[in-house]
Amino acid sequence: MNMHSMEQLIQKKAYELGYEKCGIIPINRLEGYEEKFNERIQKAEGSERFYQGQKRLVNPLLEYPWAKSVVVLTVPYAGYEVMEEVADHIGKSYLFDIRVDERTEEFKRRQELEAYMQKLGLQLAANHKFGIVALRWAALQAGLGIIRRNNFFYTESGSWVHLEAWLTDGEMELIEETKLKPCPKGCDRCIKNCPTSSLSEAYTMNPLKCISFLTTFGGRDLLHEPLAEKFGDCIYGCDICQDVCPMNHKKWIGNKAFPGLAELAPHLTAEGILSMEEEFYISSVQPKFFYLSPQELWKWQVNALNYLNNRYKDEYKPLLLEACKSKYEKVRDMAEIICVKYGLQQE
Asked: Which of 37, 191, 254, 294 has CA atoms 20 to 30 A from the CA of 68?
């Protein structure tokens, strides 16, 4: 078997399994990422500390000196139905996260493709939670789509795609050619609609101001976070810059159920989160939304309180007063401040 036929076999198998796009790039095609990485840090003042953990993506050869190519694929998730209870409150990429959910077709598909490549005799390495390489850059180099002004990677499915990649020891190359048009000239909807100005200009993003960051693994002191009042309906994650993008228009299909979401969705409302038992959180919520640890139900509840503060109604009074009795100090502190703000007292 020559290496060219191996490339074709991998792509053929990927398409048989239902992947949207599959490309393979030599490892040296990743080299331009370091310049972009440093440029991003320079443009987002104060973000260097945040990006420390991403430096491993700059040169994967330091950890995997045997790697010679990268197999990179796109996995659309726009086919899933967004339940009413979580619409606009929970980011769609988190709701339909196929990286760890073993019940999904996509998870099983990934396992099958990995086993297939191993049978071809390839040595593989992957990090399916956080990426083994800079995923968007690798997908761009493989010709699978383009990166738009909101920093998201787009295929014909819009930005509603997960990216997957493996490092391999095979000397392979299979570059696709995208026919996607660039962003419309002068379009700045994503920038204008970003509530916290995390998107300050095209292809630039300050993660320390991003709602998705501040409601997931960041923002652990929302009580003193000046941007918290701009989160609007967002409780965990944010899709605003993608929702307003004209290149995502009519891309969401939403005609099939995501495994287990119908049962979980009622618990992911502000009311459900504030009344959630720790045991249920640890067993049913945290494994899916893994950016927060099993000890961080309080973070979900502070996020929910912030939502109640931003969208206050009198009917929230019982929830807020009950939160003042929480066993979590930060939940109590947040609830007490909101109660004082709206003049709420126990009757």
From this structure: 37
Q: Is the pLDDT confidence value at 293 over 50?
A: yes
Residue 192: its H or E element: helix 189-193
* 239 neighbors 92 (Cβ within 8 angstroms): yes
Distant-in-sequence, close-in-space partners of 33: CB < 8 Å, separation ≥ 6: 57, 58, 134, 137
C-alpha 121: how far from chain center = 32
Report yes or no: 199 and 213 within 8 Å, Cβ to Cβ.
no
How many other C-beta atoms can be found within 10 angstroms of the C-beta atom of residue 38? 13
* pLDDT tens digits, one per residue of 22-72: 999 999 999 999 999 998 888 877 788 888 888 999 999 999 999 999 999
Q: What is each CA distance from 295 to 267, 279, 289, 331, in whole angstroms? A: 18, 11, 13, 14
- Predicted pLDDT of residue 53: 80
**What phi and psi, each to the nearest 5 degrees, are found at residue 113?**
-65, -40
Q: pTM (2 decimals)? A: 0.94
Q: Domain segments of the chain: what residues?
A: 3-168, 269-347
Nearest to 254 by CA among 84, 126, 112: 84
Cα angle 198, 295, 235; round to 5: 35
List Cβ<8 Å contacts ≥24 apart for 176-182. 176/21, 176/22, 176/23, 176/142, 176/143, 176/144, 177/143, 178/143, 178/144, 178/145, 178/146, 180/145, 180/146, 180/154, 180/155, 180/156, 182/146, 182/148
Give the residue-averaged pLDDT of 330-344: 96
Residue 301, pLDDT > 80, answer yes
C-beta separation of 303 from 273 below 8 A: yes
Q: At what angle do helices 329-341 and 297-310 cross, to 10 degrees?
A: 10
Residues 6+ positions from 42 with CB-CB distance below 8 Å = none
